[in-house]
Specification:
The chain is α/β, with parallel strands linked by helices. The chain has eight helices and nine strands. It has two domains: about 150 residues, 3-Layer(aba) Sandwich (Alpha/beta knot), CATH 3.40.1280.10; about 60 residues, tRNA(m1g37)methyltransferase, domain 2 (Trp Operon Repressor, Chain A, Orthogonal Bundle), CATH 1.10.1270.20. The strands form three sheets. It has a five-stranded parallel beta sheet with strand order 2-1-6-5-7. The radius of gyration is 22 Å and the shape is elongated. Bound molecules: adenine. The site of adenine has 13 residues, from strand 5.
Length: about 220
């Protein structure tokens, strides 16, 4: 899989996507990440990438030319399954969308800034618009990093324990059950007996019950679907 991220701030990706599981996935060649600075494609003599909003109002709008030229260039080099725009007014990203995207060949993620991109980019290039939640970030970069992280860990071969991604919160529509590790007794704080019983059926039953209770209490909306 190849992910091309189109951004005005490529340095923002220096941290989050260069460690841990994502780093391993890149090192193993299971995913390629490419970061493109939109400003490098501006034909304006001052490398401008934004302009005033037609009709007035506060805030600048990202112009078509650099983004269109960059996307055209990438599309001339390979096919893309999805061209995603991350924006607060997109569809809410979730585990189901992560699963779908993890089966893609190549994707582009366009990060918005200011008041967003000219609508014509959305109309003519974008195939999917995603938000990571009902709050406004300073730009799309952190959202693109979140989406990339959630997708990359689902690519077959990325997680060392294959079952681990399958038992995540949300993968089966429920939050995770509680987990414990050694010591079994920490200054009187004890691990539930059932987990030490060695009875797999009982343990599964307990975990399912706890996952259900936790979901009912914290995220009852998940049980409605
Ligand atoms: N850009 C700014 N805020 C965002 C959000 N919540 N999700 C996706 N992109 C964004």
């Amino acid at each position: 899989m190849r992910i091309d991220i189109l951004t005005l701030f490529p340095d923002m990706f220096q941290g989050p996507l260069t460690e841990s599981i994502v780093k391993r996935a890149v090192d193993k060649g299971l995913v390629e990440m490419h970061f493109h600075n939109i400003r490098d494609y501006s034909l304006d003599k001052h490398k401008k990438v934004d302009d005033y909003s037609f009709g007035g109002g506060a805030g600048m709008v990202m112009t078509i030319q650099p983004i269109a030229d960059l996307i055209d260039k990438l599309k001339s080099e390979r096919d893309y399954d999805h061209i995603i725009y991350v924006t607060p007014d997109g569809e809410r990203f979730n585990q189901k969308i992560a699963n779908t995207l993890s089966l893609s060949g190549n994707i582009i993620i366009l990060c918005g800034h200011y008041k967003g991109v000219d609508q014509r980019i959305r109309d003519h290039y974008i195939t999917m618009e995603l938000t990571i939640g009902d709050y406004v970030l300073t730009g799309g970069e952190l959202a693109a990093a979140v989406i990339s992280d959630a997708v990359i860990r689902l690519i077959p071969g990325v997680m060392s324990d294959e079952t681990s991604a399958l038992t995540d919160s949300f993968q089966d529509g429920l939050l995770s059950h509680p987990v414990y590790t050694r010591p079994a007794d920490y200054n009187g704080w004890k691990v539930p007996d059932v987990l030490l019983s060695g009875n797999d059926a009982k343990i599964d039953e307990w975990r399912e019950k706890k996952a259900f209770e936790r979901t009912k209490q914290i995220r009852p909306d998940l049980l409605e679907d």
